[in-house]
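Late entry, evening session. Most of the bench is empty. Finally got around to the prediction I had been postponing all week. Sequence below, unchanged from the version circulated by S.P.
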Amino acid sequence: MKNSGITVLVLVIMCVSFAAKAQFSLTGEYRPRTELSRGYKSLAIEDQKASLITSQRTRLNAMFKNEYIITSLVLQDVRQWGSQPQLVGNEDYALSVHEAWAEVLFSPRFSLKAGRQEVVYDDHRIFGNVGWAQQARSHDMAIFKYEDDIKLHFGVAHNENNDITNNIYNGPDAYKDLQFLWFNKSWDNSALSLMLLNNGVPYMQADEQKNRYGQTIGGRYTTLVEEVKLAGNLYWQTGKHVSGAKISALNVLFEAAYKNFVAGYERLSGTDYNETEKYKSFTPLYGTNHKFNGFMDYFYVGSHIGSVGLNDIYLKYKYTKDQFVFDAHLHYFGAAAEVAPDASNYLGTELDLSGKWIVNPFTSITLGYSTMFAGDSMEILKGGDSSVGQHWAYLMLSVTPSFIK
């Protein structure tokens, strides 16, 4: 904790000394969130009591930029209220480094960004920072960039344990080796992105560790037709699952936005309950999954990976007036593969409501409520009781001061 504080102080002094020739900012974030849950992520049972927890994310963000380099350091503390004693006697609850990267600008078009960093592309479906989660997501990675009329990024990551006497990696992340290529081209009212991702997951063969590689190939297209914004995703996954099964999976999304309304359909393929030869479940890998398939996180947020997939038909509405924002989302969920013999593919209908009050440029308060009207087939996947009420609500305060800018 003390070392982290000294590091930040030295960084501030150094960056302020160069302020005349560079840009420097030091900002913060204080984000406590209280959640009331009875049926969040999994079905509640009859007579189950609701839980009430408060978690908090605290960040200190330092950014330095000049004509040669861009650097960022984000220190982060994430905790649940009550998890730390009032009288702290050790350093187990020290700060962590969420981001620590430097980008070297070789020319106006070429650069290299390396270090601990958030990786976000397009609509967050394949790569996202998972900003809703208090801890969020970042990668240890190097990204080579070319940006002109087109954008072309090549990213590479290789993870190892601390023991340098062997070549065995057993976590904590999902991959040992990863490479991706991202292409983007924009026109007046349209944009096209293409992604090729090679994801290497380790497994043991005798005393030797090897990787099984799965590939994600596809992209996203957006265009504006008069007042209607259209968007489409298409991703195909192939290669080998870590289990050894051949992957054959598909993700399709169609979406139309008009004024305050968004209507769409997304399909993530799944594996039938009795399928053994192929792995047909699409995995959204490192995306911001909370953003897509309902705020109650029944799907692809720590669960449902490798399951029966999902069909999601949704309608979203946003209303903004002055300092207030209101959102309402309605999702109709169905399985994309067979759940069980004679079981319905209908999983449930979810309603998500949220309202935000922007108190001032540095402060906002958000209140949300969600409920799931689950079908009987949800019990097969999640357990619990689909006939009882499933509810989740939260109240979040977000304060983002700018200390130096």
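Two things to note before I forget:
Residues 110-245 form one domain.
The longest helix spans residues 2-17.
Will write this up properly tomorrow.
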